[in-house]
Amino acid sequence: MTSQPPVLLIFDLSAVMTGKTREWQELSQYGDCFLPSVVLEEIQSLAKSAPEPALEQTAREFLRFYPTSGWQLTTVSASHPSLQSASGADLSKKARQSLAVAEGSYGLALEHPGELVVLIANSQTLLQSIYRVGTPNLCGLSLAALRQWGRSGEQPPAIAQQLQLMQSVPKPLGATPSQSKPTISAQPKLAMTGPASAVVAPKSMRPSAASQILSSVMVVVGLAIAGLIAWSIIQPKAFKQFWQQTGLPALPGDSTPPKPKLPPK
Fold first, then answer.
1. Are 101 and 118 in contact (CB under 8 A)?
2. Which of 15, 196, 243, 252 has the most CB atoms around its CB within 10 Å?
3. In angstroms, rounded to a whole number, what is the distance separating the alpha carbons of residues 116 and 166?
4. pLDDT mean values, one per 10 residues, the chain (265 residues)
5. Cα three-residue angle 223-229-233, rounded to 5 degrees
C-alpha cells in the first residue's frame, strides 16, 4: 500500500488571528505548520498597535505561543503568472500581503515536491488563486474546514483529491522531497579518464592530422617573420644587406637599388 505524502500547512494572517493558544496547538496534529515571514511581521506590528484591543491581544498571545510552538518561519517565495495582478494596478497593503502569502505557498510547494502544501486562509479570493496555479502538491483550505477535519476525523474533499492527484502523477527520476531548485538541463559532459583535470574530448571534437600539420606550419612561419622583424630593428644594416642578397623586391622605404651581380672573371 502506498503511503500518503506528508502534509505541510502554511497560514494566512486571517487564519491565525481568529484562533487562540489551544486552537493553534491543535493545528499541529494535521501536519508541519509554517508561517510566512510577511504574516509574522504583521502580527508583530499588530501586537504593538492594532485598530481593535481584541486584535492586539490576540497578536500578543500568538507571539507568546510561537517561540515554543514548533511552527517554522518560511521566507521562500516563487512567482507565477496566475498570481500576478493586472499590469499597472496599485495593490493595497492587504492585497500585497495576500500576494506574498500566495507566492510563499507556491514556493514552499516547489521546495517540497513530495509533500502536500495546504494554505489555510479565510479569504476565498486567496484560496482560488492557489488553485489557479495548478500545482499537484498545492491546495487551499479554509480554517473552518480544517477544524471540521479534526472533529470528524475525515479528510476534507480538497485534501483527499489533491493527495490522489499527487499519487497519480509520476515522479521524475532522482527527485527528492527536499529539492527546492527547478531542474536545469545539464550541459553535455566530456568523458573523464585518470585525474579530474584530464579531459578526453569526443572524436568529433578532436583535430584532424591535416589541421595539426597546418597549424604547425603556421606557427613556424609566424616565428620566422617575428625573427626577421626583430633583426631589422636591432641590426638594420645587416638585415638590409641580407635582404638585398636574397634578390627579393626592395623593402618599403628602401630606395637603395640592389648591387648588380658581377660576372665571373
1. no
2. 15
3. 8
4. 82 93 90 95 94 94 95 94 66 89 96 95 93 92 90 88 84 41 33 35 47 62 65 68 66 55 56
5. 145
Q: Residue 116 burial (CB < 10 Å; 0-12/13-18/19+)?
A: buried
pLDDT of residue 168: 82
∠ Cα 78 84 85 (to 5°): 150
The pair phi, psi for residue 9, each rounded to 5°, is: -105, 130
Give per-residue burial for 65-88: e unless 16+ CB within 10 Å, then b: bbeebebeebebbbebeebeeeee
Specify whether the CB–CB gap between 9 and 30 falls below 8 A. yes
Q: Quick one: pLDDT at residue 28?
A: 86
What is d(CA 34, CA 101) in angstroms, rounded to the nearest whole number?
Answer: 11
Residue 12 and residue 119 in contact, taking contact as beta carbons nearer than 8 Å? yes
Spatial contact of 32 and 9, defined as CB atoms under 8 Å apart: yes
Mark 188-212 as b/e (b = at least 16 C-beta within 10 Å).
eeeeeeeeeeeeeeeeeeeeeeeee
CA atoms within 13 A on the CB side of 131: 13
Spatial distance between the Cα atoms of 56 and 43, rounded to a whole number of angstroms: 9
CA atoms within a 13 Å half-sphere pointing along the CA-CB vector of 47: 13
Give first-to-last CA distance, the chain, whole Å.
114
